[in-house]
Amino acid sequence: MSETTNKPAVQAQSLSTDIKLDGNVFSGWHEFQAAGKMAAALSQSTIVPKDYQGNPGNCLIALDMASRMGTSPMMVMQNLYIVNGRPAWSTQYIVAMINSSRKYKTELQYDLKGSGDTLECTAWVKDYNDHTVTGPTITMKMAKDEGWYGKNGSKWKTMPEVMIRYRAASFFGRLNCPDMMMGIYTTDEVVEMPADQYSVVDEEIKQKANQQPLDFQVDTATGEVKEPQKSALEAPVETVKEPEKKPAEKVTAEPAKTTSAANGQQTFDPGF
Fold first, then answer.
1. pTM (2 decimals)?
2. Positions of the region Disordered (predicted)?
């Protein structure tokens, strides 16, 4: 009888200790440990993209982004690519994010005008007050001036109408939906980004990065995150008490003895 009555209490206790990743896997140590175990499990899967296989760190970042965006980790991993060492969204996913967010009354629309060198495109939507929300207008002149058109293997030469829509969508998202974009560019934009911009970003990272690396270890088998061990420099230093100094003894100087030249007797010199 006691065993049956204790089971609900044990179940309630286990449910009360469940950890939920509500928006941030770095909000606490327990949340971080739980996310580490999830990341270790995902990294052992052969279905996830190669950038995440055997890499719990990348899986952990994907978990954090999925938690913040309220979507599936698999959805993030399938659409977040590593291009030139930097994360980048696929443009199709940006369009899908905006349309599925229900932030606007209508789905993303495109206003396409002109042809050839005069081709231009503006992405827009209608909000729930029937106001038109537009993004920046993308033109072929902009594509050529920014160097997008002249890149080797650029799709701007073969499919300009598709590329100009993609770029208009990414600019609309970055301007009107920065919470969804999270400051990440699209794969096309990262590929077309000039090399000098990379050097500027790398230099800024070096200047603002932590001088000392984080000292923690992740068990890839269990996903357990071990607490950092304090080094000898960080250990508390025992203060050594100096021996108390005794007050100096007052020495009274004896008056100097002098010899009288007149009678040869010794006299005392009082010192004044």
1. 0.61
2. 220-272
